[in-house]
Amino acid sequence: MYPRLNIVRPRPVASQETPRVYGKHIYGNLYECDVEILKNEEELRNIVVEAAKRGNMTLLDVKSWKIGEGVSVVAIVLESHITIHTWPEYAFATVDVYSCGKHTDPEAAFTYIVERLKPRRVERGEADRSLE
Fold it and tell me: Taking the alpha carbons of 48, 46, 63, 67 in that order, is the dihedral positive or negative?
């Protein structure tokens, strides 16, 4: 048996002929949200659907689960995903909007979700997940 070789290939250099891989991930923790919305599975599903529209994303499917009073919603978009997870007992939610489409606006989708959940405080993060 031969030992495994760890071969590292150089990253491709961006050029006119090599397309750049685009990826933008907006995520956040939302504190002191509207508790009634955090409990409402149907309303959260509607929020995710509208967020995908506002972010110019192609919605493929939405799944949701009620966990105690909390809800998890996952939207699969052609360009990646949108998620909301809620803990009404703490008036807390987490939100992720990730897109691999240059034509999309994950910031607009995230902002819409924040507006609808009405938090008093937001900790927001952003990651560039692109390949140059």
Answer: positive
